[in-house]
Amino acid sequence: MPLPPPTINAASLLREYMTHLRVERGLRPLSCEAYQRDLEMFAEFLEGANATLLTARQESVSGFMQHLREHGIESRSVARKLSCLRGFYRWLLMDKRIPHDPTVNIESPSSWKVLPKSLAESEVNEMLERTGVAARSDAADGASLRDHAILELLYAGGLRVGEIVSLRQEDLRLESASVQVRGKGDKERIVPIGRSAIEALEAYVQRGRPELMRSKSGVQRTLFLSVRGNPLTTQKVWQMVRSVNSHASPHKLRHSCATHMVEHGADLRTVQTLLGHADIATTQVYTHLAIDRLKQVHRLHHPRAKVHSTPLQERAS
C-alpha cells in the first residue's frame, strides 16, 4: 500500500486515531482526551521544526522529550507522553501509513522510573491476621469471608484490582493451587497461590458467596460480590483495603508481593510471569527495591556496617 500524501493534516489523522482508541481498544473518553492533548502538543512542536506527525523521525521524538524536560515537565508526565507517542506510531506502522516507527529506539531515562511503594512483610501479615480473625470467627458473615479472600489473593498472586473484580467463579483452580487471570489487553495467565489463599477462597466460595448471592436473583458468574449480590467494584476493594490499613492499597499489595518474592530469592522471569508484565524491564524495578531494603537491614544489623562515633562526636553530644 502506498504511503498517504504528506498533505494530510494532523486534525484528521488524530480523529481517526481517537476513533481507533474508542472503538477498537475500548478506551474511556477521558483517556482518549489525554492522548489527544499529548499528540496535539507533539504536532505543534513538529510544526516549529518543519515536520509533521507522518514525517517525524527519531531525532524529532528525542527533541520533543528534551523540550519537555527543559520546560519543567515532571518526569512521570514525560514518560506518559512518550508512551502515548509509541502507541500512536505503532498504529500508523501497522496501518502501513509510515515506513518506520520513530519511537522504537527511544529509551526512558532511569530517572523517569518511579519506584513503587511496598509494605513491609510485618504490615501485610498484620492486615491478613486482622481479616483472618474476622473470617474465622463464629459470627463471620459473607462480607468478612470475602474481604479476607480478596486480601489473601491480592498479596498471594500480585493481582491488579481490576483483575480481582473481573474474576469469575470458574477461574478458580483450587485443586491445582492456581487462578486463571485476565490481565491488560485480555491476556490470560495462570497465577499460582499458596495454602493460606486457597483456604480463604474455599471458605468464601462455600459459605460467604452463597450468603451474598441470596440477596440477588438470577445467575451471577462474578466471583466477588457486594452485600447486595452485585459484582464488586474496584472502588469498594480500595475502600476495604484502606479500612484495614490506611497506608495500604491494592496496588501496594501487588508491589509488596513482587518485592518480597525478590527479597526471598525469586528470579525476575518468575515474577514477570506472575504479575503479567509484558516487558522484563518493568519487573527489574523490584531488584532495586530489594537491594535498598537489603542495604537498610545490613546497616542496622551488621556489626561492621554501623557508623561509629568518634570521641570528639561523643563529647559534643
From TrEMBL:
Gene3D superfamilies found in the cross-reference section: 1.10.150.130, Intergrase catalytic core
Active-site residues annotated for this sequence: 160, 184, 251, 254, 277, 286
Location within or outside the cell: Cytoplasm
GO biological process terms on file: cell division; chromosome segregation; DNA transposition
Entries under Pfam families matching the protein: Phage_int_SAM_1, Phage_integrase
Alphabetized UniProt keyword annotations: Cell cycle, Cell division, Chromosome partition, Cytoplasm, DNA integration, DNA recombination, DNA-binding
Main localisation: cytoplasm
A molecular-function term among this protein's GO annotations: DNA binding
Keyword Mitochondrion on entry: no
Assigned GO CC terms: cytoplasm
UniProt domain Core-binding (CB): residue ranges: 8-93
InterPro entries according to UniProt: CB (IPR044068), DNA_brk_join_enz (IPR011010), Integrase-like_cat_sf (IPR013762), Integrase_catalytic (IPR002104), Integrase_recombinase_N (IPR010998), Integrase_SAM-like_N (IPR004107), Tyrosine_recombinase_XerC/XerD (IPR023009), Tyrosine_recombinase_XerCD (IPR050090)
Record-annotated Tyr recombinase domain positions: 114-299
NCBIfam families per record: PRK00283.1
Function noted in UniProt: Site-specific tyrosine recombinase, which acts by catalyzing the cutting and rejoining of the recombining DNA molecules. The XerC-XerD complex is essential to convert dimers of the bacterial chromosome into monomers to permit their segregation at cell division. It also contributes to the segregational stability of plasmids.
Family note: Belongs to the 'phage' integrase family. XerC subfamily.
Subunit structure: Forms a cyclic heterotetrameric complex composed of two molecules of XerC and two molecules of XerD.
Name of the protein this chain belongs to: Tyrosine recombinase XerC
Organism this protein belongs to: Granulicella mallensis
Gene: xerC
